[in-house]
Design goal:
0% strand; globular
Length: 312
């Protein structure tokens, strides 16, 4: 095998294992990580605006979580039809895609419980631990190699993420709510790894659609048994739910799935910190929530951490 072949350099950058990429991607993968990284950044911004839509929707947290995924299904199905117009699909609802749906449903479930039982700052702080679980589970289950640069970048991102919520962190908050926040991070980490594994044999469109079907089915059951009503009562509430479904979920999770087809999960999981920056920025612009100097420095530290951790 000629090591000068550009395709070999692409495969080598994927921890030396070409099987980590789908067949189509091994033949068409660009030599640069710029495109998937751009998808990661735009996806983070799309997901970061979701708290604004949740606040504007006039339904409960579990109902909004259900509508976030359910209303996205028609758009995701259209994406699948377009993406697979010339490529027949051999397998539907792979084990990895199903696990991704289960993990994301659990992520949303525990995230909303954490918001109910502890402060938003505490819930956010523990949810940002997701990259740690990606690294740990990736090593335990898949023996994925993590570079020194990724670990250094992760450390910087954790410091920056802590600075974003440090002023509002309540050390006396309820232990149960904090435990729900920890569970949120665990399942979000598992979601990253499951999507990355599913992308080895399926397109980003199919993985996102199938995982969303599983998530919507589970959250529907949760919403029916926990919410007094499922339907919004205002045009603003309807608009907020559609925006959350089409922008934050279809756009955010779809672009994340695209990135996970080319980038390591350990690096891609740092998107959660970009999401925190985006959320703070949107809250400042739309809801007039102040951003302190410490929070701004935390955001800069996160950006430096991502720069350090980027694939070479």
């Amino acid at each position: 095998m000629d090591v000068a072949d550009p395709r070999n350099r692409v495969n080598a950058s994927w921890h030396g294992n070409p099987k980590k990429m789908s067949i189509a991607e091994r033949h068409a993968a660009p030599q640069s990580h710029l495109a998937p990284f751009a998808a990661l950044v735009v996806g983070a911004v799309a997901m970061g605006i979701s708290p604004i839509f949740v606040r504007l929707a006039d339904v409960g947290p579990f109902a909004s979580a259900f509508w976030r995924v359910a209303l996205a299904l028609p758009l995701l199905w259209a994406w699948v039809r377009i993406a697979e117009r010339e490529a027949p699909v051999r397998q539907r609802f792979s084990t990895a895609a199903i696990l991704a749906g289960l993990a994301f449903a659990a992520d949303l479930f525990f995230w909303h419980l954490a918001i109910w039982r502890t402060s938003i700052a505490n819930a956010t702080f523990f949810a940002t631990m997701a990259p740690l679980w990606v690294v740990l589970f990736g090593w335990l289950f898949f023996r994925q190699h993590v570079t020194v640069e990724v670990m250094a970048g992760l450390g910087l991102c954790l410091v920056g993420g802590s600075a974003l919520v440090a002023q509002s962190l309540e050390l006396s908050a309820g232990a149960l709510g904090d435990a729900f926040g920890v569970a949120t991070g665990v399942f979000f980490g598992l979601y990253f790894l499951a999507v990355q594994r599913a992308r080895e044999t399926a397109s980003a469109a199919r993985v996102t659609f199938e995982a969303t079907v599983i998530t919507a089915a589970l959250l529907f059951v949760v919403a029916v048994f926990t919410e007094p009503r499922l339907l919004p009562h205002s045009a603003r509430g309807v608009a907020a739910l559609f925006a959350m479904a089409w922008i934050s979920h279809s756009g955010g999770q779809g672009l994340l799935a695209i990135a996970l087809g080319r980038l390591p999960a350990a690096f891609s999981s740092l998107v959660i910190f970009l999401e925190a920056i985006a959320a703070a920025g949107f809250a400042w612009a739309a809801l007039d929530e102040p951003v302190s100097l410490v929070q701004a420095l935390g955001g800069v530290t996160i950006l430096v951490g991502i720069l350090v951790a980027r694939p070479r």
